[in-house]
Design brief:
Blueprint lengths: L16 H9 L4 E9 L5 E7 H17 L7 E5 L4 H13 L2 E4 L6 H11 L3 E4 L1 H9 L9 E4 L11 H4 L17 E6 L9 E5 H15 L6 E4 L2 H4 L1 H5 L2 E3 L13 H11 L3 E4 L1 H14 L8 E4 L6 H8 L7 E8 L2 E8 H13 L4 E6 L4 E5 L21 E6 L11 H7 E4 L2 E12 L5 E6 L4 E3 L2 E3 L1 H9 L4 E9 L6 E8 L8 H12 L11 E3 L15 H17 L1
Parallel strand pairs: 1-10, 3-4, 3-5, 4-7, 5-6, 9-10, 9-11, 11-12, 12-13, 24-25
Antiparallel strand pairs: 1-2, 7-8, 13-14, 14-15, 15-20, 16-17, 17-19, 18-19, 19-20, 21-22, 23-24
Helix pairs in contact: 1-2, 2-3, 10-11, 11-12, 12-13
């Protein structure tokens, strides 16, 4: 298990300091805006906290939490929906030096419970439904000694947040945490493996704030629409107003585009974070209605590769010099690289469509990126012999201040994901790619998704790009069927929305002919049609190829028996 003592950075750093600075420099600017209700005319009514109010509110909560034992180093499960209380509680926990444990509820109840049990948290702050879950499934919460209800308490014990919160404000003496001290445990969704608790230190958060600000040129006074709650936490530290969107954050692919557009126009949103799935849905609606979004000057998309077609579609809604930036990273290392829509559409798009991979830009300042030999086993110590020759595909590894050093109580995963290099650590992204002569990273898919046949190894993103060129194909997915090292390559096809799939035999012939046009797909001879691909729960964009592989094996078995 990783311990903070492995790192020796003892600088005093507390990420809540950013909020306090903003409260002094721009006290009356709105920090968080929340859609509270609708009036009789159906218009949305909003409630908000200014930076000064948010700083005061988090101070009052910090005083109260400290008073009931939620103090420095106490692991605290936070199960609160995006709201004013959510922001105040997160910064209150940072101020006291407690360690928020955050699990994405979209991963499903049982997986979420497993993560919560694994965290061995001592405290729980949650809405009534969270405490109902604690009451009905007590074996997952045996280590909890302090429980605070956000909202009305029903039939369980413990104080409510209203009771805990100190009524009279006194500036709270912020904990003098160090850069190497644990600030939070954030669980991955486990899209391509088990969900893991990632150690975030105050130094990692601090580096992320600085790198995001500098990379994208974000300044105080901007207005953000963060459609993924975790990214919303950076807004107060960056001096941006966070507009909480009226949406289910676990289902971005089903978002109501009218509500997103309404929020952008109502508040003059200048910055938006969106997964490719949300970008596609809003872009499709906006294009159909001829909508323009003059306030937006920057869109950051991440979570899965955004296709050039998706980027081009949403770009049609923007005006003047507004840009879409694709960000590359992971919970364990974020951000790693970024890329602007101009270069994507004008320079790398054609190469991506030809099967070179998806370009995800150049490494941001302060991040080292290398491409190493593909290996499924652990690599304990870094050596330069691991690095692949320029232009060859291998595993992407990264090193930098915002790269986390380990997982919570998962030594085996630490061994598989971390390579020690003196006092620093390289994180193995689990992604495959290559770097060109201009220093750009080309993403070729997950390492676990590569398909090794008797003729060689196929990578998902390059192969799929060939088939995605067909106008009837919404997306494709390469999977392997059969024993390891001798798999049969299969391309699964999801048709464009509204395509009823008539003349699939003719379409299959066309797709096989398309495959013959490229050396990377010329040996693929099996195509299956799937109604709707299973996708990840966080961004609704990453394809669950593991599930598709199981489905494909069953389909081929059925066809062979007929």
């Amino acid at each position: 298990m990783y311990s903070a003592t492995e790192n020796t950075d003892r600088r005093v750093v507390n990420v809540a300091t950013y909020l306090r600075k903003m409260a002094r420099s721009q006290p009356y600017q709105r920090a968080v805006v929340y859609p509270y209700a609708k009036d009789r005319q159906g218009r949305i009514a909003y409630t908000h906290l200014t930076f000064r109010q948010l700083d005061i509110e988090s101070d009052c909560m910090a005083q109260g939490l400290d008073g009931i034992g939620i103090s420095r180093g106490v692991r605290t499960i936070l199960m609160v929906k995006p709201s004013l209380d959510f922001f105040a509680l997160v910064f209150a926990l940072f101020k006291v030096g407690a360690v928020p444990v955050v699990v994405d509820p979209g991963m499903g109840v049982m997986r979420m419970l497993g993560c919560l049990k694994e965290s061995r948290a001592q405290a729980l702050i949650g809405i009534p439904r969270a405490h109902l879950l604690r009451t009905l499934a007590p074996k997952y919460f045996t280590t909890i000694t302090t429980a605070v209800t956000v909202g009305p308490r029903w039939f369980w014990s413990g104080p409510t947040l209203r009771q805990v919160r100190k009524k009279q404000w006194d500036p709270y003496p912020m904990a003098q945490t160090t850069a190497d001290e644990i600030a939070a445990i954030l669980f991955t969704t486990g899209s391509t493996g088990p969900a893991k608790g990632v150690f975030y230190t105050h130094g990692v958060f601090d580096a992320q704030v600085r790198n995001i600000r500098d990379q994208f040129g974000i300044g105080p006074g901007e207005i953000d629409l963060p459609t993924f709650p975790l990214f919303a936490l950076f807004d107060p530290a960056l001096g941006m107003t966070a507009i909480i969107p009226d949406m289910d954050p676990t289902k971005p692919a089903r978002v109501n585009p009218e509500k997103i557009i309404e929020a952008i126009v109502n508040h003059g949103v200048t910055n938006m974070f969106a997964s490719p799935a949300l970008l596609n849905r809003v872009g499709l609606y906006g294009t159909d209605k001829g909508i323009k979004l003059p306030p937006l000057k920057r869109i950051i998309t991440a979570g899965a590769p955004a296709t050039p077609a998706n980027i081009e579609q949403f770009s049609g809604l923007l005006v003047e010099d507004a840009r879409i930036h694709t960000g590359y990273g992971a919970t364990e290392a974020m951000p790693v690289s970024a890329f602007g829509s101009d270069e994507i559409l004008n320079k790398t798009r054609k190469l991506s469509e030809q099967g070179f991979g998806m370009c995800v830009g150049r490494p941001i300042t302060g991040v080292d990126v290398r491409i190493i030999q593909i290996s499924d086993g652990p690599i304990a110590i870094w050596t330069d012999d691991l690095v692949m020759p320029e232009g060859e595909t291998g595993e992407i590894v990264v090193r930098g201040e915002q790269v986390t050093r380990g997982y919570y109580e998962r030594p085996r995963d630490d061994r598989l994901a971390k390579i020690h290099d003196g006092d620093t650590v390289w994180h193995r992204m689990g992604d495959l790619g290559w770097m060109d002569k201009k220093g750009r990273i080309w993403f070729c898919g997950r390492k676990s998704h590569r398909v090794t046949t008797e003729k060689g190894t196929l990578f998902t993103i390059p192969c799929e790009a060939i088939f995605n060129n067909h106008p009837r194909v919404f997306r494709s997915a390469l999977v392997g069927v059969g024993p390891k090292g001798h798999k049969h390559a299969v391309i699964c096809i999801e048709l464009e929305s509204g395509d009823r799939g008539k003349d699939k035999a003719g379409l299959k012939t066309e797709l096989l002919e398309l495959a013959r046009t490229s050396p990377i797909t010329e040996d693929i001879d099996t195509i299956l049609f799937h109604r709707a691909f299973p996708v990840d729960i966080r961004h609704n964009s990453k394809i669950f190829r593991e599930k598709l592989a199981v489905w494909a094996a069953k389909q081929l078995k059925m066809e062979s028996s007929q």
